[in-house]
Amino acid sequence: MSDTTGPLVLREDSGAVAVLLLNRPAQRNALRYESWTALSDLLTEVAADEGIRGVVLAGAGGFFCAGGDLKSGPAHGTGPLGPAGRVEHAQRVMEQLKAVPVPTVAAVEGAAVGLGWSLALACDLVVAASDAFFSAPFVARAVVPDGGLAWRLTQQVGRHRAASLLLRGERLTASDAQHAGLVTDVAEPGSAIDRAVTIAGEFADADRGAVEMTKRLINSAEAAQLAAFHPLELAMATVAQQRSASAAARDQW
C-alpha cells in the first residue's frame, strides 16, 4: 500500500526531455519495492518514445533520495518482497536505467544517500546542487552497500578512498564529488533540475542512433565486471538485512 497520495514516480516532460521525479517527499524519496516498479514502467515508456532525447532523474521536495526503505518489506523470507527479491529488483532497474537509449542525467538536490547514491551513479551524468552531499551510511545501519555502489566507488576513486566512504559513512560534498569524477556539473542550490534539463536538452538534435551506440560502448566496458559482482552483492546484502533485523528484534525483546 502506498504512503503517498500520488504516483511513486512522476513524469513531467520538458520539451524533448523526460523528467522523472521520485515522489515520496515526506520520506525523502526513500525507495520502496513499488518505487522501483514504477520507475521501471516509466523507463520502458521513455525508451520507446522517439520524441524523447534525454532523461532527467530527480527527487520531489528538494531532496534526491534517502536510499532504500528497509521497513517497506520483510527482513526474512523469499519472494519478490523478501530481502533478496528487493535487492535483485533494484539491480535490474538500475541496469534498465543504464540501457535507456538516450542520455540520462541525475539532478541531486539535498542529498543522495545509500541506494540513492547508487541510483544517481547509474545515470550517465550527474548534476548536483552546490549544497548537496553524498553518503553511504550502510555500516552504521548494520547493512552493506548495494546497487553496485561498492564496485563503482572502488573503480572510480580507488580502494582506500572508497573504504573511507563506505566503512566510515563519510559525507562527500558536491564539490569534492566533482573533483573525484562522481559529479559532472555543480549548480546553484535549487537549480539542479533546471541545469540537468538544459544538459539533457543538448542532445535534442543529436543522432539518436549514434548516442545509443556510444552508450552501449560505455556500458559494455563495465558490464562483465559488474555482472560478476552482482551475485556476491546480492548474497551479502540479503544476509546483512536479515542479521540487522534479528539484532533489532533481540534488542526490543
UniProtKB/TrEMBL annotation:
InterPro entries listed in its UniProt record: ClpP/crotonase-like_dom_sf, Enoyl-CoA_hydra/iso
GO molecular function, one term: catalytic activity
Pfam families: ECH_1
Domain of life: Bacteria
PANTHER family registered for this protein in UniProt: EG:BACN32G11.4 PROTEIN, ENOYL-COA HYDRATASE
Protein name as it appears in the record: Enoyl-CoA hydratase
